[in-house]
Amino acid sequence: MSFSDADLIARVLAHEDSHAFAELVRRYQSPVRAFLLRMTRGDAHLADDLAQETFLKAWRKLSTFRGTAKFSTWLFGVACNEIRGAARKRKELSLEEMDAPPPEATSPAASTGSHLRLDLTEALKVLSSNERAAVLLCCQNGLSHEEAAQVLDCPLGTLKTNVLRGREKLKRQLSL
Amino acid sequence: MNVPEENDPLDALLREQNVYVNDAGFAARVIQALPRRRRTWVRLVILMTAIAISSVLAVLWLPWKNLPPLDASDLTAPNFPMLLPWILVISVVGSVVWSLFSLIPKED
Question: Which of A2, A88, A138, A140 is buried most deeply by CB count within 10 Å?
Answer without folding.
Answer: A138
